[in-house]
Each structure stands twice: as structure tokens, then as C-alpha cells.
Amino acid sequence: MDIHFLETQYGSVDYRISCNLRNELLRKPLGMSLFDQDLEEERDFIHLIGKNEEQELIAYLQFKKIEEDTLKMQQVVVAELAQGKGIGRKLILFSEQFAIMSGFSSIILHARENVIGFYERLDYVREGERFLEVTIPHFKARKKLQ
Ligand SMILES: CC(C)(COP(=O)(O)OP(=O)(O)OC[C@H]1O[C@@H](n2cnc3c(N)ncnc32)[C@H](O)[C@@H]1OP(=O)(O)O)[C@@H](O)C(=O)NCCC(=O)NCCS
Questions:
Q1: DSSP character for 77?
Q2: Residue of the nearest CA to atom 44 in ligand 1?
Q3: Per-residue model confidence as pLDDT tens digits over 65-112
């Protein structure tokens, strides 16, 4: 599958499609809705997407700037039918290059416990104890960019 990655803007058609994907994969399984929360703060975030050859949006993540040199990676999703094919890995690697080109040197994230292995394979290092977020166990992890 040939995927291309790019930035999109808050409020764009692709942003709205990505919200539906995030809601399906990250919120509905927990009995929640993404649209119950105020998405206005995402106006200032960086939004990165992956599209397949048919121009369908199949991958998404966002960055929130939390320090001068550090971004927080959030809302990482790959569409269900596209999972397990290396697209999540490519999305993360693209986002890291994007972060470096934008002048950042560190990424942190809160990984769901069932997905921490995915980030560890990409050299994210766990920090601290397990904690609850959106009702489920998470670990904080960090990667220093080259
Ligand atoms: C987690 C997710 C983004 C991974 O994307 P993906 O495209 O399926 O992952 P990839 O195929 O690129 O996998 C890359 C590597 O990570 C491994 N991996 C994937 N998911 C994993 C998991 N849940 N736990 C441990 N390892 C995992 C793969 O086996 C692969 O290993 P390899 O390097 O030995 O080949 C995707 O499954 C997803 O969207 N899940 C639902 C939403 C979610 O939970 N997001 C994360 C919130 S913190």
C-alpha cells in the first residue's frame, strides 16, 4: 500500500474526516464521543495525516507543543482495515522528521497499555508508573530526536 503523509489544518475537510476516524477508534470503544469535548484548543496543534492511493485518509496523529523543544504526540490512529501493515510505524517516523524540521528535539506521549509495545519498538522509553486516562491504563513515554 502506497501511503503519502502530509500536514492538514484545523477545520479542513481532512481534519473533520480525521475526527470521525479518531472517534470510531479511540472514543466509541470506551463508550465516549470525541465530539463531547471542546476541540477548539486543537486550532493550535499540528495535524498530520496519511492517505492511500485512493486519497482516503487512513492515518492521523496530532502534536501539541508543551515546551520550547518538546511536542506531545496524541490521538495516533490507523484505520482498522489498514492496521498491521507498517503504516503506523511510517506515520510516527514521518512525524518525527516533521518535528525535527520544525525545530523540536523531544517527543512525549501517553500510550495506552495495550499499545505501549508499538511505541517501544520505535524507541520510545517508558517513564514512571502506570496511570489512568480516559478510564484506561496508560504509560508516559519519551523519545529524544536525533
Ligand atoms: C496502534 C496503531 C496506531 C498501530 O498502527 P499499525 O499500522 O497497526 O502498526 P504497524 O503495522 O506499523 O506496526 C509496527 C510494529 O509495531 C507492532 N505493533 C503494532 N501494534 C502493536 C501493539 N498494540 N502492541 C505491540 N506491538 C504492536 C507491530 O507488530 C510492528 O512490529 P514489527 O516492527 O516487529 O514489525 C493502530 O493499531 C491503531 O490505530 N490502533 C487503534 C488506536 C490506538 O490504540 N491508538 C494508540 C493510542 S495510544
A1: E
A2: 115
A3: 999 999 999 999 999 999 999 999 999 999 999 999 999 999 999 999
To the question of pTM greater than 0.70 for the whole model, the response is yes
Up-side HSE of residue 20: CA atoms within 13 Å toward CB? 8
Q: Is the CB of 84 within 6 Å of ligand 1?
A: yes
Distance 110 CA to ligand 1 centre (A): 15
Pseudo-torsion of CA 126, 43, 28, 58, nearest 10°?
A: -80
Pick the CATH number of 4-105 from 3.40.630.30, 3.60.150.10, 3.30.479.20, 2.60.40.10: 3.40.630.30
| Residue-wise pLDDT tens digits, 116-132 | 999 999 999 999 999 99
Confirm or reject: Cβ of 115 under 6 Å from ligand 1. Answer: yes
Rounded distance from Cα 126 to ligand 1 centre (Å): 16
